[in-house]
């Protein structure tokens, strides 16, 4: 095909904020995990597919049972089970309790 560009598993973005390797980053409605450190305003690669352990918010409502929708709280830069004002990024692959500081999430494309 002459119109094929790439497979899309890893894509380059311009970071809207500094993000460390392995950290989540939201660009518009596109979510991914930084492949390497990316400075604010710099171009870098993010993975848009796969299963990742990501920093999770703690407290009431932040939990998720296996298979539940996982959201990204872009203000806190953390995964949460709270839908309000947050962006869907995938599903909890492993149940996460309200006190858990990390969550295993399968990203949705």
Describe the fold and architecture.
This protein is mainly beta. The chain has one domain (10-107). Helix content is 0%, strand content 40%. It has strands at residues 10-14, 24-27, 30-34, 43-47, 51-55, 69-73, 78-80, 87-92, 102-107. The model has no long low-confidence stretch (mean pLDDT 96).
Which terms would index this structure?
four-stranded antiparallel beta sheet; mainly beta; 109 residues; five-stranded antiparallel beta sheet
What topology does this entry show?
Blueprint: E1 10-14, E2 24-27, E3 30-34, E4 43-47, E5 51-55, E6 69-73, E7 78-80, E8 87-92, E9 102-107
Antiparallel strand pairs: 1-4, 2-3, 3-4, 5-9, 6-7, 6-8, 8-9
- Span of the ends, CA to CA: 22 Å
Across the major sheet, the strand order is 5-9-8-6-7
Structural class: mainly beta
Mean pLDDT: 96
């Amino acid at each position: 095909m002459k119109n094929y560009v790439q497979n899309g598993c890893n894509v380059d973005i311009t970071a809207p904020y500094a993000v460390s390797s392995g950290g989540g980053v939201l660009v518009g409605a596109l979510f991914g995990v930084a492949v390497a450190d990316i400075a604010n305003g710099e171009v870098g690669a993010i993975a848009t597919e796969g299963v990742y352990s990501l920093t999770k918010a703690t407290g009431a409502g932040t939990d998720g049972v296996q298979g539940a929708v996982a959201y990204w709280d872009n203000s806190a830069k953390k995964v949460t089970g709270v839908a309000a004002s947050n962006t869907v990024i995938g599903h909890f692959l492993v149940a996460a309790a309200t006190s858990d500081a990390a969550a295993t999430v399968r990203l949705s494309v």
